[in-house]
# Entry
Amino acid sequence: MTWITYDAELVEDIAAKLDLRSPNSAAIRAVAEAIADGDGREVVCSLATGVGKTYILAGLVDYLAAQGVRNILVVTPGTTIQEKTVFNFTPGHQKYVAGSEVEPLVITSENFSRGQVGDALHDDAVTKLFVFNVQQLIRPTDKTSRKVRAQDEFIGTGLYQHLQQVDDLVVIADEHHVYNAKAKAFNSAIADLGARALVGLTATPAPGVVPIFQYSLAEAIADGYVKIPVIVYRPDGRKDEETVLADACHLLRIKDAAWTAWAEAQKKIPVRPVLFIVCKDIPDANRVANRLTVEDMFPEEGAVLTITSQSSDDALRALAEVEEPDSPVRVVVSVNKLKEGWDVKNIGVIVGLRALASETLTEQVLGRGLRLPYGKRVGTPMVDQVDLVAHESYRQLLANKDALYQKVAPASGGEFDENRPSPAATSGAAGPDATQQHHQETLTLTSKPRVLGDDLADGGMLLQVESMDDTIAQGERDKKAVTKFRAKRPEAPTIRFPRREQEVLPVRFSFSYITDASARAEGAAYSHEFKVELARKAMDYQRGVDGEVNRQITTAESVDATQKHVKIENLREDLLSRIWNSGYVEETLPESRAAERVVREFLEGAGVTAEDEEHEWGELRAKQAATALGKLVKAAYDNRKLQPQYAFRMVNVPTVPPPVMPSNVVDKWQDFRKDLWYDGWEHSVEPVASFDAKSTEFRLAHLFDESSSVQWWLRNYDPGEVWIERDNGRKYYPDFIVLDADGTHWLIEGKSNDRANDPEVQDKKKAAEDWARFVRDHGEFGSWRYIFATESIIKDARGSWESLMALAKPE
# Structure
């Protein structure tokens, strides 16, 4: 086959349909561009755990299939991830990735030796997705591997040999770093296949591997795609196992209450957090699990689940169902078994019963516990964080801060916020003032200012080190806070936002959509008479040399048959009747005139003029002309009907019911931090607001709140109800809605200087300006306008609304 070409528009289309996060679409874009040569090169993408490598895989399959690739091999490190991958491409399964354009035929070691699969292997119209674990490829002595390489009656050769023969094979290696130990055998197995490309996906690249795309854990945490890790310690220095386990169980109950309260307030199905404990060996795991089943911890049947290499099928089944609402499991005890492939979203607390070493931090804390329980940050710290109970001394944690820094933020960098004093008292026993001091004993790792989406953010929280008392107190605050709602202030108005949505609407068709030129062009095919011939066959008999008489049939010269003729006057009536009877238009005088025009132009194309009214057409010619004109009208109707249209839908904001009140709220005059909510506003429709960037959104909020020219302002969030649909189907969420003193509504966007001219940003700006113009022209929704303000404009406005108007120059 002709190898693929890089198609940036296709990547964007797939990203929109799968609703991909920015790093995922960027990774697909990097891979698509890198493998366009089809020279068999190996490329690796490194993305933090929890960001969504599954969606990258689905996007790549869609991209390759759209480019004509029909053979894609996904290699997994073991059966757990192999099963998960199969489920990702199985419609109806709870782990199925919705939104994919293609539905490939999934082929595994269990089903390839079947007639249907054998037929599909040789069908170029079918996209085949082979899902095999690495052992099935690199162990020729293994029973399954021998089966993969053995002659198969349905395939005509061995499956492995079949893959060697196809000329469009792409190999995608999930958890690519795992194969480093098997590099020689793995590389040999892949090299022998002769794949056009090898794509590796991993969260931790093997030594010496330079990824073509990298998205660090620091970026994932700062961008809000995963939980914020919180390392919990005791101010009194107690770190014996009994205390660690008791504290972890207590913290889990506190977190469970906060998660449940949030879900009930939001009317969502509760996701229950579990405690994940990592032990050093199997006897240690069994001992810890038995200790956890006592009365003061989790004595309920099935509440404690032990997972080791000796676990039963029932235990593994219970592990697979740990996210289900009715799962009894509250604690999972493991022995380094759950490193890859166990992707759950409800780990709330983690205990590493070993020293706080880089291995534990990387593999357990920053791996298994990062996924968000509700798919996104909800603004409640207990829900948005994962707690590691690691009762080392506070001084030891401070000493280890450089190791933590390297593990959390290897790419984008960060800095420790030590503006709060670290009391020397923590090195000894807790004194009478320890309770007052623990609020000062917080070590926070924050990211440096960086580009976040389309803007320059001041940095988000990447990692916290907090006392046990602080953590429990936060849980109690969250449990209470989520019972309150972020309702709009009573005196603030409800804003009715005219959301313009793209949809296929019933369109009133008119014959006026048919041009003169198209009617004449269609009629030109009927400028000559159609003959109806009588076929003549001659039958002759001749005797052959053997004396037998043989019949011969030959074609004789045909003659014209007689046919009825139709007067032009009657033909014109027939043509008019044909298009009127289509039922596409109402019988009005304008439509009658348009229909007469279409028939007139059609006949002129056929050479019929006003002077030819006495002429006649043959019946065949007249009949086919009427059919052709009917098809012309139907084509015009279909094309018009399928054109996308826009309709306005009124949306009331703030939404009802309102979101829950966050617990991490500070006064608006406090220093900016991305993870905080700010209150104390005079003119905000809602009592609190959060922001992504200090130099744009945070500064604009202060400008609005201090200006007498602004009646009210409302912070808009992504996702939310206020958005503008772009031509590519993607949604744009402006930063603010402002109601000025003159009654005009403004959509306002703040942008960093270095992002203001990006094509994506400019496309959003154009979509918003078009939206505002359509709303104003519509005339029923009041006056709406749009402001695009860069950092420089906001700074130079110096807090003045009028100055912002003058500098931004809105349409």
The CA atoms of residues 734 and 749 lie 5 Å apart. Residues 511-641 form one domain.
